[in-house]
Design goal:
Signal peptide: 1-30
Radius of gyration: 33 Å
Shape: globular
Distance between the termini: 117 Å
Region (Disordered): 221-248
Largest sheet: 5 strands, antiparallel
Keywords: Signal
Structural class: alpha+beta
Strand content: 25-35%
Organism: Streptomyces melanogenes
Protein name: Lipoprotein
Number of helices: 4
Order of helices and strands: HEHHEEEEEEEEH
Helix content: 10-25%
Oligomer: single chain
Length: 248
C-alpha cells in the first residue's frame, strides 16, 4: 500500500509547489496582496478605582438639555428663515421678564438695547442669524448670537416643528469665536490659566434628549500669529529729504 501512495504524494507536492509559485508570481503584479506590516495590539479600557462610592449630592445644573417652546412665535411652513430674529428674542424676554441668569438670562442693559433695535439697529445686540440643519430632519434650525456686556455672548438655537418654535440650545460665555462644523455648533473661548491655549466645546443634537448637548470639550494649543517679515529697504548713498524730515 505504501508503494502505491508515493506517486500520489509526489503529484500532490508538485501541485502545491505550482500553486505556491503562482501565488508568489501574482504578488508582484498590480493589485496583488501585500503585507500591511505589524498590527498594534488592541488595549481595552481599564476601570480605575471601581469601588468608589456613588455621589450623594445632585450635580450642578448648567442648563444642558433644557428646551422651551417660544411663546407667541408661529413658523409658517416650519421655515425659520421667515422669522424675525429680534422678535424671537423679545418673545423670550416677555415670557421671562425677571430672569437674569440661566438659559433665559440677559443683562438689563441688553434688554434695553433689545427694545431699541427698531430705532437704533446698529446698537441691536442680536447678531446676524444663521441657518443650518442641526437635527438631521431635513429642516434648518435658527442660530442666534446675542452680545452682552463684559464680552459675553449668548448663543441660542431654535428648532421648528408643527408651526411652532422650540429653543434647543442656550448658553453664554466670553467667546472669541463660533463655528458651524457639519451639524455641530463649536464654541471657542480663551484659556484663562494657560496662555496660548483655548477651549473648544462642540454642541451636538441628541435625539434621545431632543436637545443640543455639549458632547466634546477640549483644550487646544493655538499657534501664534506670526507677523510678516519686514521688507528690506534698498541701499542708498544718503537719506532722502522726506526721510530726513521725518527723522526730525
Amino acid at each position: 500500500m505504501t508503494r502505491h501512495r508515493r506517486p500520489a504524494r509526489a503529484a500532490l507536492l508538485l501541485l502545491t509547489a505550482g500553486a505556491a509559485a503562482l501565488l508568489l508570481s501574482g504578488c508582484g503584479n498590480a493589485g496583488g496582496l501585500e503585507g500591511a506590516g505589524a498590527t498594534p495590539t488592541a488595549v481595552g479600557p481599564v476601570h480605575l478605582w471601581p469601588d468608589l462610592p456613588k455621589p450623594t449630592t445632585t450635580p450642578l445644573d448648567f442648563g444642558e438639555g433644557q428646551t422651551e417652546r417660544v411663546p407667541g412665535i408661529k413658523v409658517p411652513g416650519d421655515d425659520v428663515r421667515t422669522l424675525d430674529p429680534v422678535a424671537v428674542v423679545q418673545a423670550e424676554v416677555r415670557a421671562h421678564p425677571d430672569q437674569y441668569t440661566g438659559a433665559d438670562g440677559l443683562y438689563e442693559e441688553t434688554v434695553r438695547q433689545l427694545n431699541q433695535c427698531r430705532a437704533k439697529p446698529k446698537g441691536c445686540p442680536v447678531l446676524r442669524a444663521y441657518y443650518r440643519d442641526l437635527t438631521g430632519d431635513g429642516r434648518d434650525e435658527l442660530i442666534l448670537g446675542i452680545k452682552m456686556p463684559e464680552q459675553q455672548l449668548a448663543v441660542r438655537c431654535y428648532m421648528p416643528g408643527r408651526g411652532t418654535l422650540t429653543r434647543i440650545m442656550s448658553t453664554s460665555d466670553q467667546l472669541i469665536g463660533v463655528e458651524l462644523a457639519g451639524r455641530d455648533v463649536v464654541l471657542h473661548s480663551v484659556s484663562a490659566g494657560i496662555p496660548g491655549y483655548e477651549y473648544r466645546t462642540a454642541w451636538s443634537w441628541d435625539d434621545h434628549q431632543r436637545a443640543m448637548l455639549p458632547t466634546r470639550d477640549e483644550i487646544i494649543r493655538v499657534e501664534p500669529q506670526h507677523s510678516p517679515a519686514p521688507v528690506p529697504r534698498p541701499k542708498t548713498s544718503g537719506p532722502s529729504p522726506r526721510a530726513s524730515a521725518s527723522a526730525r
